[in-house]
Amino acid sequence: MSETTPYDADRARFTRQALARLVLCDHAADAADGAAGLVATGNDPDTGPGGRVSQAFQLVELAERALVSAVVHERERGSSWTEIGQYLGIGPAEAEQRFGTNLDDWNTAFEVPYRLDDTGRKRIPQLPTAAYDPAWACDRLDTWARNRLVLVNDKRPVSSGLVKAVPEEELPPVTPVTP
């Protein structure tokens, strides 16, 4: 099922490297929000036994998603398995074995943008949401960064640094998608 998606034009505005970086930004924001939930103590009496362990475990899962996204991004920008493995404290073969399937899934999602659900009627996007709908992700993440990163003084702190597929002045205007 290699049909076009409603967001192909928006996605074409960015390089695959930029889309991978956008996914990393999205997963990093989720992990940061998960960590923030562990900081305040005011609701501790409302948390049942083991509740904070559950939150911390969820944070580990969010961090793992961010790590996978970072590896995909690094491969998209040309980093070798040796370079990636060096930062993970493992060899290149182990790094490729650990993350190779994630990279294969990323590559396949560009060729086959959807899969059918179990009923065979609903199409499920294969790309992570931030890469599938980058216009929405840029708006959300720019707002997230402006609201949470105190020293950032940029109107578009996330989207301004993404590599465009073509120069900005040559791009057609983005039309917002309304739900």
Can I get a quick summary?
With 179 residues, this protein is mainly α. It is built from seven helices and two strands. A two-stranded antiparallel ribbon has the order 1-2.
Give an account of the 3D structure:
The longest helix has 26 residues, at 51-76. The chain has helices at 8-12, 16-36, 51-76, 81-88, 92-111, 129-132, 134-148; strands at residues 114-116, 123-125. It has a two-stranded antiparallel sheet with strand order 1-2. Helices cover 55% and strands 3% of the residues.
List the topology elements.
Blueprint: H1 8-12, H2 16-36, H3 51-76, H4 81-88, H5 92-111, E1 114-116, E2 123-125, H6 129-132, H7 134-148
Antiparallel strand pairs: 1-2
Helix pairs in contact: 2-3, 2-7, 3-5, 4-5
